[in-house]
Amino acid sequence: MQLQQNIDRIQTTHIGSLPRPHALLDAMKAKYSGQNYDERAYRAALRDAVAAVVREQVNCGIDIVTDGEFSKPGFFTYIRERLEGFESRPGMKVQLFQQEVAAFPEYYEQYFKRAMLGGAVVSLAPVVCVGPVRYRGEKLLATDIENVKAAAAAAGVANEHVFLPATAPSGVGKNEYYKSDDEYFHALAVEMGKEYRAIVDAGILVQIDDPFLPDIFYEPGLDDAQKKRRAEIYVEAVNVGLRGIPPERVRFHTCYGINQGPRIHEAALQDIIGYVLKIDAGSYSFEAANPRHEHEYHVFERVKIPDGKVLVPGVITHASNIVEHPELIAERIIRYARLVGRENVIAGADCGFSSQAMYETEVHRTVVWEKFKAMRAGADLATQQLWGD
User: Fold this and answer.
1) CATH number of the domain to which 164 belongs
2) Residue partners of 86: CB distance under 8 A and separation at least 6
3) Which of 135, 306, 327, 388 keeps 20 to 30 A from 191, CA to CA?
4) Per the domain annotation, does 1 fall within a domain?
5) Domain that holds residue 273
């Protein structure tokens, strides 16, 4: 029995990011906009916010908890702070969901203003690699580790039920320095691997976030051979970064990166699952609760997962404010358990609930907690059916 497998009940978790409290957002906005701020007060506010959010996760019945990604104001800021060799390009257009945007331009014009980009603490400015990649996030990471471990201990959660997310090499930024993709992603993997190992060395789980793998299969201009090679590069890079880390200490997450939208231009699970299972991880999480992907559990009627590996399908979604009924959640869990074994299914979410630090998230913070409670209730119903009373 590996570390992440279930023993006598269905465990629950989520993907990581959660809505930040407004007091922390105010302090974060002051820090990152160049205003006068008190660093010690900011660190205290961050520590207290992490303690509160871990406690709330436990109160809602989440077994495997994290810090809500509260220290990270946004994805590109996270990269700039933790890696040398990158510069910000505020004027460069961010290419998000190109085929979706082309198919529904009016919807996405409104959506980006209202949801994903509106109300963010830090503007979405892409980063570009212009020099040698070097990891420099040791102090920031040490703070994250210290805060989440202290919060978990206070909430009665053991270290093996704590995780911290870290980005996959594929998501770091555009390359303008290295001669080839292979060279670039290898360099990223070596440096990001320092973060992965530091998290695991602290006694907690590392989660590798790679929402970019599925994008390959809907990226304009790539033929089938190019898609295959790009996917292989992404997998190779993650595994280089994870070299020497026991797989049972690793979670791998992929998704489609879109919250509320039509979502008709997305890869099918059958397109990506072969690559996902090549990652040297103990568990794999993916979207499975939203209506575009819920049917894809059938993939595992044909695809056998390696012995000891765990699936973490989304049984609640980040793409709706509807709170899923516990009985539906139990049905979703049981579908997977019957295909891959009850010990190999952890109940999870499709994606995070606030990947950017924002004042107004698409799923309201109060709804997030109700979704978590419903997930616990659904996991308990599934446990009763799978293990008996």
Assistant:
1) 3.20.20.210
2) 79, 80, 127, 128, 129, 130, 133, 172, 173
3) 306
4) no
5) 22-387
Give the closest residue to 355 by CA, choosing from 73, 123, 63, 89: 73
At 232, list the tokens.
Answer: 């292989």
Which one-letter amino acid corresponds to residue 43? R
Q: Write down the pLDDT at residue 118.
A: 54
DSSP alpha helix (H) spans, the chain: 22-32, 39-59, 75-82, 98-103, 105-111, 138-155, 181-201, 224-241, 269-276, 326-340, 365-387
**pTM > 0.90:** yes
Q: Tell me what pLDDT residue 3 has.
A: 94
Computed from CA positions of residues 233, 218, 196, 62, in that sequence, does the dihedral angle turn out positive or negative?
A: negative
Q: Please state, in angstroms and rounded to a whole number, the distance separating the CA atoms of residues 330 and 322.
A: 16
| Predicted pLDDT at 142 | 98
Q: Are 343 and 5 in contact (CB under 8 A)?
A: yes
The pLDDT, as a whole number, for residue 228 is 95
> Which helix (H) or strand (E) is 167 found in, with range?
strand 163-167
Sequence-distant (6+) residues with CB within 8 A of 161 are: 63, 64, 65, 152
Nearest Cα residue to 169 out of 255, 238, 228: 238
Q: How many domains does the chain have?
A: 1
Closest Cα partner for 345 from 389, 302, 378, 388?
378
Question: In whole angstroms, what is the distance from residue 12 CA to residue 383 CA?
Answer: 11
Mean pLDDT by 10 residues, the chain (389 residues): 95 97 92 87 96 98 98 86 91 76 89 67 83 97 98 98 96 91 96 98 97 88 92 97 98 88 92 97 97 97 97 96 98 98 98 89 94 98 93
**CB of 333 within 8 A of CB of 382?**
yes
User: Does a structural domain hold residue 203?
Assistant: yes
